[in-house]
Write a structure and sequence with these properties.
about 425 residues, alpha/beta, Aspartate Aminotransferase, domain 1, Aspartate Aminotransferase, domain 2, 2 domains, globular, binds pyridoxal-5'-phosphate
Length: about 425
């Protein structure tokens, strides 16, 4: 009787398998509050002050690039990076169909035409073959997005891009500190774009950064974020003296309070990434041994450090006698084991809906694809049926917490017969 009660699913009125609280995010320590207070008292709150300079220097070093710029968010970072590699209105930019809408919006906002490519069903990241097939004489740039918990193939994508004269702007909003063959994500193309929004693994509430090696790319992005002003010779000094850069610029600055939070977060990041990697590997191994319908995406051996916005997993309804993903995940959620699904295909976002009178796109002529009818098969299947994500904060848990997540999965796997009814 006791066993029967223990096995009763929480969705059937049993006790949830996960009793420990979800690990907190963002992590806040005394050092964060002290440094922000120090900045507040200093009266130097913006205009590329000492904390921003310190952060940019440390972050460039961490990613492995010559330069880093702090910006207001992880969307304007991509707009500026695209402009810095000379994307102009009417050029085509290739974007994976599965990403946050901002990746596509950044290109659209500067007048470029977005061509959506399909994803690799094993990683959910841009499929190199689909990228290659989408290239036309008008293609100027590609944005490989290192999505959730898998990097893009950064051997194949830069190689295809180089052969076609296409610039590579990595969207690293999900994977601060991932490394491909030892090289940081954000150092593998012409520029790397980072978001520091609240849910990201390095955060200041809002904010963004661009990493790059080319001094001219750096000067252009600096001018675009600093109302036209840019360092005269970044190789000598990346922050001053500033000269008018003859570029149309905006105010896309970061504040000193944000830079203070980023400095503190950056100190914690390597240990947090190691913790997430260990927990993700434990989950992957246990799920493989379990052989159930939920399995983790395999780790590509070329990824030498994997940062996780979420762990990428897959649900196979065939291994659960057709139980749909939503029902399986709802049973897990009742056990306080909260897996998510994914973004929607960007081409189906209401923001791009050509029938929607508020969409800016009806005013654009010569769209390269009919977004309203586009259906990319790997993206469609992953979004509708198979892809599952586990948010980064769950991967920060103790061994006991991860053990409880696994116990919840086992409990649901052991009850598939009842779940089917
Ligand atoms: C993959 C991806 N790209 C770009 C962005 C845009 O970043 P932000 O919200 O800082 O503008 C986000 C996050 O929100 C994202 O997840």
């Amino acid at each position: 009787m006791a066993t029967l009660t223990a096995a009763r699913l929480a969705s059937e009125g049993g006790s949830p398998a996960v009793t420990l609280p979800t690990p907190a995010w963002p992590v806040v320590e005394e050092a964060d509050a002290a440094l922000v207070a120090e900045v507040v008292r200093s009266g130097v709150w913006s205009w590329i002050g000492p904390r921003e300079r310190e952060f940019c220097t440390a972050y460039a070093d961490f990613i492995g690039t010559r330069f880093c710029l702090g910006l207001a968010n992880g969307t304007v970072t991509m707009q500026c990076a695209l402009q810095a590699v000379e994307v102009v209105p009417g050029d085509e930019v290739i974007v994976p169909a599965l990403t946050w809408v901002a990746t596509a919006q950044a290109a659209m906002d500067i007048g470029a035409n977005v061509v959506f490519a399909d994803i690799d069903p094993v990683t959910l990241a841009l499929d190199p073959a689909s990228f290659a097939a989408a290239i036309t004489p008008r293609t100027k740039a590609v944005i490989p997005v290192h999505l959730y918990g898998c990097m893009c193939d950064m051997d194949a994508i830069p190689d295809i891009a180089r052969r076609h004269g296409v610039k590579v702007i990595e969207d690293v909003a999900h994977q601060h500190g991932s490394r491909w063959r030892g090289k940081g994500a954000g150092s593998l193309g012409d520029a790397g774009s980072f978001s520091f929004q609240q849910s990201k693994v390095l955060t200041s509430g809002e904010g963004g950064a661009v990493t790059c090696d080319d001094p001219e790319v750096y000067r252009t992005i600096f001018a675009l974020k600093q109302v036209g002003w840019t360092p005269a010779d970044p190789a000598a000094n990346p922050f001053e003296p500033l000269v008018m850069g003859n570029k149309y610029g905006h105010n896309y600055r970061l504040t000193e309070m944000q830079a203070a939070l980023l400095l503190c977060g950056l100190k914690r990041l390597p240990a947090q990434t190691a913790r997430r990697e260990a927990n993700a590997q434990r989950l992957a191994a246990a799920l493989a041994a379990e052989g159930g319908p939920l399995q983790a995406a395999p780790r590509d051996p070329r990824v030498t450090t994997q940062a996780y916005y979420s762990q990428t997993l897959f649900y196979d309804p065939a291994k659960a006698s057709g139980i749909p993903r939503a029902r399986y995940l709802a049973a897990l959620a009742a056990e306080h084991c909260s897996f998510g699904t994914t973004y929607s295909p960007v081409y189906r976002s209401p923001l791009l809906n050509l029938a929607d009178a508020t969409s800016p796109l009806p005013f654009r002529r010569d769209l390269p694809q009919d977004y309203a009818t586009l259906r990319l098969p790997n993206t469609e299947r992953a979004v509708a049926e198979t892809a599952v994500t586990l948010s980064q904060k769950h991967l920060l848990g103790t061994d006991e917490y991860t053990g409880q997540l696994l116990a919840a999965i086992r409990k649901v796997n052991d009850s598939l017969d009842r779940l089917r009814e």
